[in-house]
Specification:
Strand content: under 5%
Number of strands: 0
Shape: elongated
Distance between the termini: 12 Å
Helix content: over 70%
Number of domains: 1
Number of helices: 6
Largest sheet: none
Radius of gyration: 18 Å
Length: 139
């Protein structure tokens, strides 16, 4: 596969994965479950736990970064096709981890998490996705 084709495939997969990540935030119903007497306490704990999900992206991002570096080293050689495939695989796995904050926002929406917290968690996912874009230097 040529570098232009690989970049195009990566770009399309990136957008599809972002849609899959953010769609539940809009589709899940508001306040589907009753939390009882202290919903503020549960909401704060849930938001703190959901923010901790951001730290799960450290190892996948490190793997992605090394895959990009390895691809840059073999860009115009025979091993470039395998390096592109490896980059696609590593990035796909990393993007699943990047989806977790938005999915937590969707779950939080059903249990009554406040709108600013839902918004912050939902925006964290596109910001993480932005980290996983394909560098222009690989064209």
């Amino acid at each position: 596969m040529k570098p232009q084709e690989s970049r195009r495939v990566l770009r399309v997969l990136w957008w599809l994965q972002l849609i899959v990540a953010l769609l539940p935030v809009w589709l899940f119903p508001d306040n589907a479950f009753d939390l009882g007497a202290q919903p503020e306490y549960f909401s704060l704990l849930f938001f703190a736990a959901a923010l901790c999900l951001l730290f799960l992206n450290v190892k996948p991002f490190r793997r992605f970064k090394h895959a990009v570096i390895d691809l840059g080293k073999v860009l115009n050689t025979e091993q470039a096709a395998d390096a592109w495939q490896h980059l696609m695989h590593v990035r796909l796995r990393a993007l699943w981890y990047a989806c977790l904050p938005a999915w937590a926002a969707a779950v939080g929406k059903t249990v009554g998490l406040e709108l600013p917290a839902i918004f912050l968690l939902a925006v964290a996912t596109p910001m993480l996705f932005w980290l996983y874009r394909t560098p222009r230097q690989l064209a």
